[in-house]
Sugar ABC transporter permease (Rhizobium rhizogenes), 284 residues
Amino acid sequence: MSTVTSPGLSSMLAGRPLRLFAAAALLINGVFPALWILFTSLKNEAELTAKPITWLPHAPTLANYMQAFSDQPLHIFLFNSFMVALLSTCLTLFISVLAAYALARLNLRYRGLILSAIIAVSTFPLVTLLVPLFEIMRTLNLLNTWIALVLPYTVLSLPVCTLMLVSFFEGIPRDLENAAMIDGCTRIGALFKIVVPLCAPGVFTAGILAFVNAWDEFLLALSFNSNPSLRTLPVGIQLYQGEFAFPWPVISAALVVGIVPVAILIVIFQERVVSGLTAGGIKG
């Protein structure tokens, strides 16, 4: 007796191993390191170096978290990172919204060339920009200030955010803006009152990307700020290691503290970010 399998069921069964492989890769690459850092932050030094290796802490302790705040001014690092990331995200969104709207709505003569230039700029390695940016900041007397990080972070996030928003703005009917302008609204007013609210998922997604990029950046933060009171979190965490000692439980505790704000941000805006990435992928 023969069994008939529908084409849809066959493709579903064929794609199942690929989905399982993708889920396993995500688990190994993303979830496992985060859990390992969390478990390490709850262990003492003796348990961490014991053999055989123990995956779960036998006697969980929060002493490492208290030591992370006492050994270094971790609260100052967090504040500096938050302010720099917040300011650069706001500036990035403001500029990228205007740039993306111009590319999506205005009949620019060299629109294709501009988009190609934006894509090309986004591929530049950060290390190649370090010396020119440092010279610019030194000439402008901006070293050891938040602005020295806010401006470069904005420039680095602009290409990706602009390209993402262009696809969203192109999906909004022009009639909505025309109707608003007929009622007396300016083009800029129509942009921020009509287009931006309708593209809220894309704007939130671009904002999250800009915030995370600024929150995690290390090279520029290390090079542009030598003032201890202005150090950001990535730079501050590397101060926990000594010349001959690496207190991994304390470092892990500081890392967990640094991950929490971004995790909270993702959880709060999860639905908007997911819908933004999905919609952007479909439109692109």
